[in-house]
Design a protein that fits this description.
Strand 1 (33-37) and strand 2 (42-47) form a beta hairpin. The chain is of the alpha+beta class and 75 residues long. The chain is 47% helix and 21% strand. It has helices at 3-9, 15-28, 61-74, and strands at 33-37, 42-47, 54-58. The longest helix has 14 residues, at 15-28. The chain is elongated, with a radius of gyration of 14 Å. The protein has a three-stranded antiparallel sheet with strand order 1-2-3.
């Protein structure tokens, strides 16, 4: 069995699923860089704002999406 299959069998997102999720968020928020930190187990985004880029961290893609929306609303 591959590592991707082992992760999928345990209900964890595979690296391919994480990459697809990151791409989806980046498409939703042009200019924002999104990735999953394997070492931290967190989702990350670098959000360009008027006062400079802001680094965001969240436990799930949904929470990261909310954090990006909040950061952009603040400026």
């Amino acid at each position: 069995m591959t590592a991707d299959r082992d992760a999928a069998d345990q209900g964890e997102p595979t690296p391919a699923m994480r990459a697809a999720t990151a791409r989806g968020l980046q498409e939703q928020f042009p200019g924002v860089r999104v990735w999953f930190g394997a070492a931290t187990g967190s989702w990350w985004a670098m959000v360009p704002l008027r006062d400079g880029p802001q680094l965001l961290e969240a436990e799930t893609p949904q929470r990261l999406r909310d954090a990006i929306l909040n950061a952009r609303a603040r400026g």
